[in-house]
Amino acid sequence: MFDRIAVAIDGSAEGGKTLPVALEMAGRFGSAVTVIHIREHTKYEGSDVDLGPATPADDLVGAALERFRGAGIEAHGEIRKVNPGNTPEQIVKVAAEVGADLIVMGMRGMTEWRSMLLGGVANKVVQHAHCPVLLVR
């Protein structure tokens, strides 16, 4: 049913709930997995400023890949560097590039009303994805 699953991780505690669900889905369906981490950057006084979590992107993705591979699941990682606000677009783009049949990602931060009004990352991915999106709370 789901030959390839794209799992978006952001390094947050809330987002950490995503991996066990994705592991279960990939194990159940024999899916290959692509772990996606989008890191927002901006320029400040001529320097590139990483707006992501304190943990380096390679470490976040590497730890996730170890969990999947340790469970016998084929897994690859994709790290993208984008301008602020382009995270949803990149998640959808990477999922399409790898031929994902499902995107698994967390919901975090905003209340349901605020997310509907402002358009949180998860909401935008759901609106623009080419495949089903499983949101983990």
Which sequence of SSEs, written as H and E, runs from N to C?
EHEEHEHEHHE
- Basic shape: globular
Number of helices: 5
Please state the average pLDDT score: 88
Strand % is 25-35%
Q: How much helix is in the residues?
A: 25-40%
Can you summarize the main beta sheet? 6 strands, mixed
SS-based class: alpha/beta
Rg, Cα atoms, Å:
15 Å
Spans of at least 5 consecutive residues whose pLDDT stays below 50 are 113-118
Distance between the termini: 23 Å
Number of extended strands: 6
Explain how this protein is built:
With 137 residues, the protein is an alpha/beta fold. Helices cover 38% and strands 28% of the residues. It has helices at residues 18-29, 57-70, 87-97, 112-118, 121-128; strands at residues 4-8, 32-44, 47-50, 75-82, 102-106, 133-136. Strands 1, 2, 3, 4, 5 and 6 form a 6-stranded mixed β-sheet that branches. The chain starts with a strand and ends with a strand. Mean pLDDT is 88; it is low at 113-118.
